[in-house]
Design goal:
Number of helices: 13
Helix content: 40-55%
Strand order of the largest sheet: 2-1-7-6-5
Number of strands: 7
Radius of gyration: 18 Å
Shape: globular
Largest sheet: 5 strands, antiparallel
Bound molecules: 6-diazenyl-5-OXO-L-norleucine
């Protein structure tokens, strides 16, 4: 059988991007420093469940910050907008992912994609679900990935032992009443959620689930309510790549989220989930090869939200 055009494209991109060895593997969580910097995978899963992949798509690594939009969706679904937005905003911070700052006036974290906001969201989930919080999170991520996911206990312990900055953030949040009193327990849950093991293929299926209005296109399971997916994608679009989010929106133009272990997911609404895995990071904490691949994919396939191929609302077409 002839190779699909998309398969040829990602194999070309893999070959073209492989020589780029710029950047460094994250070491501030000591265990992450052991990752093989040469790992490199690209996986695309369509909203109707076809899989295209090349390179290291089966290698497990921890999800890290890519957990943030998926937890945010869970919080919106169970606690509702009003409750969540009393505790966390939706503004890009223009600052690093682990910056220690809150919005002036409200004392809320800027958004749920940076550590202040993500820890707040996890604390909200903990206040709601209690002892079953971690199981709820793992179950939901597993449903999005289409297989049962595990936690890397070694990475979890490594971050828990060294996560002093996140501990400072959590206590600052407690000081302003943004999180409940059991802040240490919530923080451990945050470290655990970041240590959920995924592969590049898992991430692409999770992204495809978001692209398919919350329904996993492989298993057919409705994983997130449709109304929550819009929230998740909006916040990924404006805040998913930290203080690189503006440049990303300009150059790539689709909702995305990165993590310090080297994963990046992108979502092309109603069409495609994209995941890349390459652990060498730039100074923002984003995967260098991941950004290069997504930029190229967007350019060659016309993925940008404001590309001339994007015709806007079909509903408007009907009423006009
Ligand atoms: O909180 C942390 O520092 C990590 N567990 C997650 C950070 C992360 O992935 C930021 N991403 N670029």
């Amino acid at each position: 059988m002839e190779k699909h055009e998309i398969q040829i494209l990602i194999e070309d991109l893999h070959r073209e991007t492989l020589p780029n060895t710029a950047g460094h593997v994250a070491t501030y969580i000591p265990e992450l420093g052991k990752a093989n910097p040469d790992n490199f995978g690209i996986c695309l899963v369509t909203a109707d469940g076809r899989i295209f992949e090349v390179g290291n798509c089966d290698t497990p690594f921890t999800i890290q910050s890519i957990s943030k939009p998926f937890n945010f969706g869970l919080a919106i679904e169970h606690l509702g907008h009003d409750k969540v937005f009393q505790h966390v905003g939706v503004e890009p911070s223009g600052d690093t992912f682990n910056s220690i700052e809150l919005q002036r006036g409200s004392n809320r974290p800027f958004n749920p994609m940076i550590n202040t906001g993500a820890i707040t969201v996890t604390a909200l989930l903990h206040a709601h679900f209690g002892d079953s919080t971690m199981d709820t999170i793992v179950d939901r991520f597993s449903a999005a990935a289409g297989r049962t996911l595990d936690i890397d206990e070694t990475v979890y312990r490594s971050e828990s032992r060294t996560g002093h900055r996140n501990r400072a953030i959590a206590h600052l949040l407690l000081n302003f009443g943004m999180v409940h009193e059991e802040v240490e327990a919530a923080l451990e849950l945050y470290f655990r959620q970041c240590s959920i093991l995924v592969t590049c293929r898992d991430l692409a299926v999770m992204a495809a689930t978001l692209s398919n209005m919350g329904r996993n296109p492989i298993t057919g399971q409705q994983v997130y309510e449709i109304r929550c997916v819009k929230d998740m994608l909006s916040i990924m679009f404006t805040c998913g790549m930290y203080d690189y989010s503006g440049q990303w929106a300009y150059q790539v133009g689709v909702p995305a989220k990165s993590g310090v272990s080297g994963g990046v997911i992108s979502v092309v609404n109603r069409q495609l989930g994209i995941a890349t895995y390459s652990p060498r990071l730039d100074s923002y904490g984003n995967s260098i090869r991941g950004i290069e691949v997504c930029r190229e994919l967007a350019a060659r396939l016309g993925l940008h939200a404001f590309d001339f191929t994007n015709v806007g609302s079909g509903y408007l077409d009907v009423v006009l």
